[in-house]
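<context>
A single protein, sequence plus fold
<sample>
Here is the protein in question:
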Amino acid sequence: MYLITGGIIVLEKGLLEGYDLLIVEDRIANISRTGERNVDCNIEVIDAKGGYVTPGMIDIHSDYIEHMTAPRPTSLINFGLSLRETEKELLCHGITTMYHSLSIFKSVDYKYRPIREPENVQKMLELINQTHYEKHLVRHRFHARFEIDNLDQVDNLKSYITEDKVHLVSFMDHTPGQGQYRDMEIYKKTVRSYNDISDEGMSVIIANHQTKEKLTEESIKEIADLAASRGIAIASHDDDSTDKLDLVESFGATISEFPITLEIAREAKNRGMFTMAGAPNVILGGSHSGNLSASEAVDDGSIDILCSDYYPAAMLHAVFQLSSMLGKELSEMFKLVTLNPAKAVLIDDELGSIEIGKKADLLIIERLEPDHFPVITTVMVDGKLIQQTNYRI
């Protein structure tokens, strides 16, 4: 049993001061005025020291595990080591539930990562699944990012779904000339940032990707229906037109990841889809691909969710930056990384907000002087005190 006192509690509908949180076993048991409850010897008191008490952050799109496992094209770190070291980092950034977004690509001509080989994806998937049954720090989940030209891996994806080893499915198409790479110059610049490729070589790469065979709409819908039957949410990636939204809605997508323009983000939101942008986009002041500005879209009300994408530290800082820069309520900005992603992946009955009866996944966030830099000082997962950090002068 724990009693968290002396903090500013970030609730779904606002900030609450002068109240304590009682944690019993893995649940939030009570929210009461400070001093109302007699503290006995069985309760450990945690002083929030004026910091914010928030839900643990839920990251539903991050390929950071790929970077940790394959930091170089010729380097493949032990998978177990990579996963355990990654979760230690995630704690420091306040991410208590991580949907590891492993890419199931058929081929990439310019940015090879050995972790994306089918046998390595399966190996990491099995390790993520195994964490449910052994000691671990954060909740590990598997987000299957399926490139729609990867016909060879359809049966494997279906098996992973039926074995309950997949927790989110997104369908991706990185063909140049549409989606993320609708601007061909951005595509060429991206390719050349990894390899020195001639104009002739670039033309061959573009032609290969534009003529490759892809899954039919019927095949995509078959996979999506299978996932939906297991209670798994479906996401679309890089929506760039209303026609694309029509298509992804037809096979049950409820999440629009990284809509390319503000107009498409608005349209997806108007259709009832959850819309997502990358927190690094906020920190950087814009998209690295020259697409939608996350800050502008949040200000517009057309983005529901922020994910870490490739930089876990960005989620915490994006929340505070948006609140300060846009003049938005802090509780509303926290929903971008807590309650809204929980709703999108259908886990909000247990996680995503501070409510009596919900799981006690909690953070204490202090702000360091002189620049009010936000830092995670306490992390609790499933009612267990996982980590405390004490900054010193």
Q: What stands out?
A: The mean pLDDT is 90. The longest helix spans residues 79-92. The longest strand covers residues 95-104. The radius of gyration is 21 Å.
